[in-house]
């Protein structure tokens, strides 16, 4: 059997895996990137990821460093304000609304919103032409044997690749983590999240709105206009049975329910895509590394979809690992991997705890917890030093990233 040789094999050509491939190739590394699922061409295609991501300031800089932002810029919608609405009851009654602006941090915008399916499609186009990247879409990871100086990976087409480092960027059921014997700690909430896009009557004015009510947070994310109408991506967290019920509604009825849920801030809406549903969990890997192996992104951690923390935390993993590799002769050296694991584990644990608590508070229908949620929102927004600290922690900073 012919065995190819590469410096680094990445399993998982999601957004984090593709950014990692681009960064490492620009360092002069030979990278093999594999994934059994090629990107889709349009939102309505089977298997499309209808979630959207607000790429925050540090993530934008990472895309630029990887030479990828030019491919995304024309598709990105600025996120100029973050609006938080605390509601109760059904139909919901607004108890308070607070708006956060990037001026507090000296920025013109918090970030840039992009649909995940479109980001993956555009990044794949760039990587197909990137020197040093062997892009194998439609081929997946199958098995791995690690040795002191290399890992031998068998792929789904039965070919083999010898690599000095294997990066698992292959999702919450990571085959790389499984092959490395790395277990997962999982917290389940009995929630599911619905993801879809809508067009709507009122302009979004580049404002993302997060609405709290029983069952969880519902977030609207501004998108470019579609067919002459304003458009937004929706991520709606709900108790499991209610989420299933919503997912089976006809589009017109689901749009009506959404309008009530978000207190009509977008005006009457219409569904513009199919609806995707997935379970809401907090999941963290018991270890981030093994011999010649590192986990990043959802192979390392899965967070509830609150505050744009999920994929931006994933890109922080990629940045940390790539910057360590840039200074190393051996990308899979034990000391390098130990440093990565130690630094990222701290940040992942902290963010997982905060998002877990936040999700529990947001979804509660207990009056005392709702009162605490309202008081917390007022305190965070009303005290300028507290507001800036919370916003800075949510965005991440160049200093934080460099010190990880």
Automatic annotation (TrEMBL):
Molecular functions per Gene Ontology: FAD binding; monooxygenase activity; oxidoreductase activity, acting on paired donors, with incorporation or reduction of molecular oxygen
SUPFAM superfamilies: FAD/NAD(P)-binding domain
InterPro entries given in the database record: FAD-bd (IPR002938), FAD/NAD-bd_sf (IPR036188), UbiH/COQ6 (IPR010971), UbiH/COQ6_monooxygenase (IPR051205)
Cofactor: FAD
GO BP of this protein: ubiquinone biosynthetic process
Coiled coil location: none
Annotated FAD-binding domain residues: 6-346
Keyword Transmembrane among UniProt keywords: yes
Superkingdom to which the source organism belongs: Bacteria
Keywords assigned: FAD, Flavoprotein, Membrane, Monooxygenase, Oxidoreductase, Transmembrane, Transmembrane helix
Annotated pathway: Cofactor biosynthesis; ubiquinone biosynthesis
Transmembrane segments annotated in the record for this chain: 6-25
PANTHER family in the cross-refs: UBIQUINONE BIOSYNTHESIS MONOOXYGENASE COQ6, MITOCHONDRIAL
Family to which the UniProt record says this protein belongs: Belongs to the UbiH/COQ6 family.
Name of the protein in its database record: 2-octaprenyl-6-methoxyphenol hydroxylase
Source organism (scientific name): Tranquillimonas alkanivorans
Lineage, highest ranks first: Bacteria, Pseudomonadati, Pseudomonadota, Alphaproteobacteria, Rhodobacterales
